[in-house]
Every structure is written in structure tokens, then in C-alpha cells.
Amino acid sequence: MSRLSLVLNTLMLPERRAVIFASKGVISMALSLFMAMYLQLDRPYWAMVSAIFLQVRPESGLVIEKGFIQIAGSTLGGLFGLMILDVFMPYPLIALTLLALWIALNSGLAAYVHSMNFTYGFAMCGMTAAMVVLLFFSSNTPDSQTAFSIAQARISEICVGTVCAVLVSRLFWPVTVIAGLRMSARTTINKSMQYLALELDPNGSHDGRHQHADSILESVMAMTDDASAVFYEGPKGPARSRAISLLCNRIMSLLSMAQILGRFQRNHPELMSADFSQFLQQLRAGFIRVAEVTDYEQAYLENQQLRRRVLDFGERSDQSPLETRMTQTAAELVTALGLILRAYQALAVPDQQLAGATRLQPHREPLLGAVNAIRSGLVFTVGAVIWMATGSFAAIMMMILPVVFSIMFSRLPGTILKLVFKSLMIGALAAIPVGLLALSILARSSGDYEVLILVLALPYFLGLLLLANRPTLPFGLGFCIPFTIIVRPGPGMSFSADVPVSIGLAILCGIAVLAVIFTLITPPGGKRLQRRLLESTTRDLRDLLNHESPRDWYNGRMGERLLKLSTYDMASGNKDRSMTDLGFTGLNLGHAILTVLHYLKSIPDEEYPANFSRWHSALADAYLDASRGIANEDFDKASRQLLNDLQSTQCPQQTRDLIEGISNRLQLTFKRTAASVNG
Asked: Among candidates 414, 419, 430, which has minimal Cα distance to 517?
């Protein structure tokens, strides 16, 4: 279906959910406009803009969270704008330069967060500072009182729009974050079980495994982003937020251990006994049963039975050290699955005994932050040059909306960005004639608030229908925001055609400039970023034991990192997905280090093996070398020295076997990885 057909289908045959969303949006904007006019704010339409931005995700918790972030970002931006004016009021050029740097800083920092709510907070911080400074220099009475009044009005308008949007979200057809999270969690758990079954299927396809892993990682990161908003949904919110963090964290552990078992079965069948091979297939059948049941109690019971089967198999004495370790890995996997199921149940009935876990963290890439900063700074600078050359009020819109869009959409891949900018321009282009039509009708009316709402309700309703669906969201955003600024609902509306047209054209030019700058200035190539991701993973491996909860910390660090590696792999057309596999290998290595450390804790301090630190360091070096196609012999030597140390301690034979099994598996992994990179 073409994009135009999709837009028409959304408008002509809207879903019930979209109709409710649009109705809430119209009520929210009508209420924000009424309150802003009642309080006699200078530009009440900015309160409507604030309400529109809060409608992008209508769930109550997300609206409240974004509301707090919006107010905080606007206040900070307003204060910074006042600080610029206080010091550089007589020097507009210096003030604009500092403003461009401030916008660039906020855009760069926005690259360090994954949640769209927090990204939006940085956008508001930059936008509010720009509005305060630009409106001050365009005013007829540029003095300190004017500066303070402008800042106060802008922050007040944002606060009014925020409060109205939050009230409507809570009172009219409320939708909660936790309801969506429960559905996402259940789907993700089922996908994880299907992924486990694929990993343990000797005939499973490479593409199938990666498609499932990609989908799971995307769901996990999306749930992590929404987990903070659950905090605002009643007294049970904090416990449910912790449960989501635990669920996502343990799914990362699950993926790691599934990879270990799957790779061992696929790549080294000669090292497996017939009994162990049969055991893995029984394990696979158990995961399929867990995925098929619909009741939590039944799923938990199936998992407990699976755990007993694994423990029984682990008591066999005829296993090789490698098989002993793999059986232990299966036991850890089933234990992690039990925690995941408990965390899922805690979303409905909070479990106070359920320990929390570190949230998955966004990967912070300075190069991407620098690129985003340059882009947004240039977008503002181009608008500033045009404004200083023309002195037109409409040119101010080239420095505000495009800057906000540049920060909000900076994380999107280039191919998607082109479609987004095209959709924004189409929406903004449609807003000009619709805005002129609305103004012509309003010019013949009494000007009462009721008439104003009646005239504007239909355009906003249609725009919000587009905003309700993700594929058409850019069209809706591109229409609703420019339409509001073109019409400028409130007492100071201008009914002459030249002002709305010039504002609309300025917005279109700003989006065009934004698209050109994003096309000319692109992030570093995928290969370079992938290499930096692997180097960051190596640094984390070395730093792993310097944290209070190293397993949770490492899982949290690897979440978005794996997703980025997968995204870059797919964008490059790499069918064997070698970089994604390297990312999962890095995840496995962190768990291997912690497992060996756990086994060594049974040894008295005076007999603690001195070569463990060297083994740990050699493992991190071997991983980085393997990712470059280099076979590192130091890890083999470090492993032999560690095992020799254990011979002279009171370490139980079973523990030595387990550590030997881990070392043997890692040696095989590094050799296979280096060969894969080279070949």
C-alpha cells in the first residue's frame, strides 16, 4: 500500500483506538486553549502545541512522565535564555552564537538517551531557550522586563498544555502503560521460548534465529523505555517498574545461555554424547510447552518440571568436563526463565520479594552525539542567518520547529529519515490551505471561544487520526503543529493571508533545510560504529568485576549494543550476521567470567589462584583479537595456568571440571570466531 493510500485509509476507515485517541487530543487542546486564554497568556496556541506533543503516546504514565520532563526542560531552557540575555543583551550576534551552541549541546546529549520522552526533554530545553531569545530580539521593547515576561509566558504556556493533557489522559478513556507492557511481556516471553527451541533445533535456520533474536531485542528495549513511566501509575507502579527491569535483564541472560547451548550443539557435535544430545532435545520440547500454555501457573509448573529434569541429568558422573558445564548452563537458563515468569506475574500482582535488577542502558556513542550536535546547530544557524537578513517574524519558525524535529528524529536510520522528512513536508504543505480556510471562516464569525473550537475541531481530529498510527505519525505531526502556528488560535489571531502563508512557507523551508543537512552530514559508517561497539564491549569485560551487581550491570550495558550491531549488520546486507554473532559472543563472555568467579569463591582466600586476573584479562584481549580475525594464543596459556593453580588448592574436582569446561568452550569459540571473520 502506498503512503498516500495509507493516509486516506487511516482518515476514511479509522480504527476505534484512533478515534478515541483523536477525541482525547481534541478535548486536550480545547481545554489547554481555554485555560491559556482565561489566564491571558500572550500566545495561547503554544499551550496547544505542548498538548499535541504529549499526545504522541497517549498512555497515562507516559503522558505524566513526558509532562514532568517537558516542564523541567522548558524551565531549564527558559532560564538559560534569560542568562544569555542578561549578559549579552547588547550583542545579538554573540547571543545567537551561544544559543546555537546550546541547541547543539542538547542535541548531542539527546543521543545519549534511548527513551523518546527524555529525547523530547532535550528538544524542549533547546526550543524554549530559542523562543525566549528570538522573541526578545523581535520585540518592540527589548529590556530586562520584556525578557522575563517572555520567559514566564513561554513556561506558563507549556505548563498549561501539560496539565491539561495529563488531566484528559487520566479522565477520558484512560489507557495505562502497564496494560501494554503486560501484552508486550507475554509476547516477548513466547518469542524467547521459540528462540530457545530454534537454538536447540539441529535443523534450525541461521536467519530464523537472528530474526527471533532481533525481534526480542527490539521488544526488550521498548519495554525498558516504558518501564520508567509505570512508576507514575498508582502505588503499585514502582514495584511493576522493577519487575519489568528484572524481566528484561533476565531475558538478556536467557539469550546468552541459549546461544552457548545452541552453538555447542551446532558447531561441536563430535564432543556431545548421545545422552547429552537427547537431553538437549528434551529441553527443547520443554521450552515449546512453556510457550504454548496460556496460564502463568501452568507455565511456572512446566518450568519447575524442566528444572528438576535438568538437575537430575546433572547428577550423572559419566559426563565430560565440557558436558558438565553445558548441563550447568542449562540449569542456569531454566532458573532465569523461572525469574522471568515470576517477573511477568508481578506485573499483575506485585511481588515485594522479587529483587530488582539494573535497567538496560542506552549505548552512549560520542561520534553520534557529535554528528547530532553539528546537524542541529547548522539547522539553527541557517535559520538565524535568514532571520538576520530579512528580519521576518516567519523566519523564526525556521529556527524553532526544524530544531525540535532534528533532535526528536536524530536516532532514526537514514532511509527512514527520508520518508519522515517527506511526510513532515506533505503534512505542513496541507496545513497551509486548511489553515487559510479555517481563518477565512473565523474571520466571518463572532470570534467566541465556542465558535473557534467548532471550526478547528475537525482539522485537529483528522490530524490526530494520522498521529494515532505509527506509519502515518509524521504526516499527523507535520500537519498539527504547523496548522496550530499558522492559525495561532487566540485573541491575537491575524486574518490576513500574507502572515499565515509566510509562516507556513517558512516552516516548509525549515524542514527542507533540515532534510538537506541530514543528507549532507551523516553518521560514521556502520563498520566503524560496529568496531567501536565491540571495543566498548571489550572495555566492559575488563571492568566487569568493579561493579556491585556485575551480571545485571553487564546485561544492562549490552542490550542496546546488541540491537545496534544487529541493525548495522542488516543495513550492510551482511547475510551471515557475523557482527551480531560477535555481539552475542561478548554477552556470553561476561557471563562466563562471572561463572568462573562464582566457582572460585569456594576456595580459601590464602589458596585463591593468582592467575585468575591474568585469565580474565587474556579473555578480553582474545575477544577483541578474534573480532579482528586474529588467533590469540595467550588465552590458552592463561587457561592452562589457571587450571594448574587449581590442582594445588582445595578446589573440588567437580569445580575444576566446570572451569575446565568453560575454558575449553571459550577456546573453541575464539578459534571459530577468528576463522569466521577471516573467511
From this structure: 414
Eight-state DSSP code of residue 546: G
Q: How far apart are CA 383 and CA 131, in angstroms?
A: 13
Cα 305 to Cα 617: distance, rounded to the nearest angstrom: 39
Look up cell 549579552; give the residue.
88
As a whole number of angstroms, the distance between CA 664 and CA 51 comes to 59
pTM: 0.84
* Nearest-5° Cα angle at 671, 669 to 674: 105
Handedness of CA 665, 670, 671, 677 (dihedral sign): positive
Kindly state the helix (H) or strand (E) to which residue 47 belongs, with its residue range: helix 45-54
Fill in the amino acid letter for 65.
E
From CA 481, how far away is CA 283, in angstroms rounded?
Answer: 54
Exposure string of 193-226, with b = 16+ CB inside 10 Å and e = fewer, is bbbbbbbbbeebeeeebbebbbbbbebbbbbbbb
DSSP state string for 473-505 = HHHHHHHHHHHHHHH--STT---SSHHHHHHHH
Q: In this structure, are residues 367 and 523 in contact, taking their beta carbons and an 8 Å threshold?
A: yes
Instruction: For residue 278, give every residue at least 6 positions away whose Cβ sits within 8 Å of its Cβ, in sequence order, or none.
Output: none
How far is Cα 269 from Cα 323, in angstroms, rounded to an integer? Answer: 11
CA–CA distance, 117 with 222 (Å, rounded to integer): 12
Task: Identify whether the C-beta of residue 554 lies closer than 8 Å to the C-beta of residue 544.
Answer: yes
Q: What are phi and psi of 363, to 5 degrees?
A: -80, 125
Please give the Cα distance from 406 to 122 (Å, whole number): 11
The single-letter DSSP state of residue 607 is G
* pLDDT per residue as tens digits for the range 180-201: 888 888 888 888 888 888 888 8
Q: Which positions ≥6 away from 472 have C-beta within 8 Å?
A: 6, 7, 10, 423, 466
> CB within 8 A of 554, min separation 6: which ones?
540, 544, 587, 590, 591, 594
Q: Which of 82-86, 124-128, 255-259 has the lowest mean pLDDT?
A: 255-259
Q: Does residue 608 register a pLDDT over 70?
A: no
Mean pLDDT lowest among 29-33, 456-460, 520-524: 520-524
Contact present, 129 and 151 (Cβ < 8 Å): no
Q: Whats the size of the chain, residue-wise?
A: 679
Q: Which long-range contacts (CB under 8 A, 24 or more apart) does 81-84 make?
A: 81/128, 81/129, 81/130, 81/131, 81/132, 81/133, 81/136, 81/147, 81/151, 82/132, 82/147, 82/148, 82/151, 84/129, 84/133
Cell of 108: 548531542
User: Which pLDDT does position 460 carry in this prediction?
Assistant: 92
* Interatomic CA distance for residues 80 and 133, integer angstroms: 9
Give the pLDDT confidence of 334-371 residue by residue, as tens digits.
888 888 888 888 887 776 666 666 777 777 888 888 99
CA distance 304 to 331: 11
Whether the CA torsion 453, 456, 462, 464 is positive or negative: it is negative
Cell numbers for 20, please give them.
478515541
In contact, 224 and 361? CB cutoff 8 Å:
no
pLDDT higher than threshold 90 for residue 639: no
Angle between helices 274-292 and 296-314 (to 10 degrees): 170
Which secondary-structure segment (H or E) carries 337?
Answer: helix 321-346
Q: Judge contact between 387 and 513, C-beta under 8 A.
A: no
Rounded CA-CA distance 561/255 in Å is: 14
Cα–Cα distance, 303 to 291 (Å, whole number): 10
- How many Å apart are CA 40 and CA 641, to the nearest integer? 78
pLDDT at residue 663, rounded to an integer = 84
CA atoms within 13 A on the CB side of 565: 29
Angle between helix 206-230 and 237-267 (nearest 10): 170
- Contact predicate 586/251, CB 8 Å: no
In angstroms, rounded to a whole number, what is the distance separating the alpha carbons of residues 345 and 333? Answer: 19
